[in-house]
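Figure 3 (text version): structure tokens given as input.
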């Protein structure tokens, strides 16, 4: 057994690596243990034999308000050009038949940029734009008194949002950031995102899309940073059980191999069900961990499609009134030269909150895709050359109204154990930003224990 005091971090996704980098930069001895061979958690990439490309487990979107994430990427040396960050928020949504609804916010201070963008939104009538503007004007009051028991659907009804503006603006936003149905998703979680994105600065609301596969965006660089500062990252090293001393303080971790690692602090950066498996049996009876056991998950399905010819004339679009929520032209995002080259165009399709489809076979999902492309691109005749389905059945926790209180704080009931992950109580929904913030919060707790 290694007797040197150190911090063990379980999990090498955004949360775990962010915590490890922050600690290593502060001179703390860290060891990261990761169950898989390559890390990345639920934000990873892999080589897909079907499409012949490096693809993500799901298309991920960031925003200018992702302060913790952008700071983490900057710390590990990720080039600014690896993130396609808009100058001003711009969105294009397609109606069945191909008509466009376009939001293009001007260069005005926040939140005037959003108000002006909503007023001049193209593709919806003036009454619908006025309804959206009304919600924007009331937003500051909503931020002051968020109610986690109110659903997004009830919130939109209370603010007088029309069905048209809901379908064109609000519901795509809800599916994207909450990964859940507006009928059940928490309005408080939506308002938390709106506050950060639209009330701080104009730049905060700009969309940021990775221009390269996720693992190469952050995993490799973070590992190199940790190792350069004397830390260690162990892949293919599943954790089996957290160890406590007779006083109930964390004393180390047992790996599946049987190896025991000594530590004075442990940070778990894993999904809820994995955390519960690591805990000693008696600890699971604590009220905090009983609440964790009650957290439910929401799936995401990603369809990776190789087309003979490009379908989109821009990097991404949303679909109104479709079970397919977003289409992404990966070639336009990754390389402008590849976007104009026919014969191998890679399209990523996102189905958020995909409970109704998560058990469907690939052939059924392929038929769904063909039918929806026919509805939204009636003049196109896309030829599918390769088709790959990636299902993340536990992509995020469910953000159902009334469940935020079940999410645990960073400080756990077990002395020496800190909790990280996009699902802990960060004040945000389970996003990349929430994951990185949780990792930084856990690192700070190790460095400055209370």
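Below: residues designed for each position.
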């Amino acid at each position: 057994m290694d007797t040197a005091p150190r911090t063990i971090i379980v999990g090498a996704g955004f949360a775990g690596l962010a915590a490890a980098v922050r600690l290593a930069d502060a001179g703390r001895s860290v060891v990261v243990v990761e169950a898989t061979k390559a890390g990345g958690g639920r934000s990873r990439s892999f080589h897909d034999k079907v499409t012949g490309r490096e693809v993500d487990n799901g298309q991920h979107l960031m925003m200018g308000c992702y302060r913790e994430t952008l700071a983490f990427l900057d710390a590990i040396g990720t080039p600014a050009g690896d993130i396609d960050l808009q100058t001003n928020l711009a969105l294009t949504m397609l109606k069945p038949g191909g008509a466009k609804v376009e939001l293009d916010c001007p260069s005005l201070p926040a939140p005037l940029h959003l108000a002006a963008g909503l007023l001049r939104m193209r593709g919806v009538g003036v009454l619908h734009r006025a309804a959206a503007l009304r919600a924007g004007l009331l937003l500051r009051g909503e931020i002051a008194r968020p109610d986690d028991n109110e659903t997004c659907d009830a919130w939109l009804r209370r603010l007088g949002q029309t069905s048209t503006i809901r379908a064109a603006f609000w519901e795509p936003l809800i599916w994207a950031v909450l990964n859940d149905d507006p009928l059940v998703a928490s309005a408080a979680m939506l308002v938390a995102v709106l506050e950060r994105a639209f009330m701080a600065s104009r730049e905060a609301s700009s969309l940021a899309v990775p221009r390269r596969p996720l693992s190469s965006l952050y995993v490799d660089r973070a590992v190199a940073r940790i190792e350069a500062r004397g830390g260690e990252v162990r892949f293919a090293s599943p954790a089996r059980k957290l160890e406590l001393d007779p006083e109930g303080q964390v004393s180390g971790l047992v790996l599946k191999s049987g190896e025991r690692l000594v530590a004075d602090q442990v940070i778990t950066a894993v999904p809820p069900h994995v955390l519960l498996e690591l805990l000693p049996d008696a600890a699971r009876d604590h009220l905090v961990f009983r609440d964790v056991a009650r957290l439910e998950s929401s799936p995401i399905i990603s369809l990776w499609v190789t087309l003979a010819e490009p379908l989109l004339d821009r990097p991404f679009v949303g679909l109104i009134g479709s079970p397919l929520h977003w289409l992404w032209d990966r070639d336009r995002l990754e390389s402008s030269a590849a976007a104009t080259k026919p014969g191998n165009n890679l399209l990523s399709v996102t189905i958020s909150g995909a409970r109704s489809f998560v058990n469907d076979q690939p052939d059924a999902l392929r038929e769904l895709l063909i039918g929806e492309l026919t509805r939204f691109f009636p003049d196109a005749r896309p030829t599918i050359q390769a088709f790959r389905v990636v299902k993340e059945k536990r992509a995020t926790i469910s953000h159902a109204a009334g469940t935020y209180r079940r999410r645990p704080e960073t400080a756990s009931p077990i002395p020496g154990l800190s909790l990280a992950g996009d699902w802990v109580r960060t004040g945000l929904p389970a996003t990349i930003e929430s994951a990185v913030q949780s990792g930084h919060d856990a690192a700070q707790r190790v460095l400055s224990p209370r």
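The chain has a mean pLDDT of 93.
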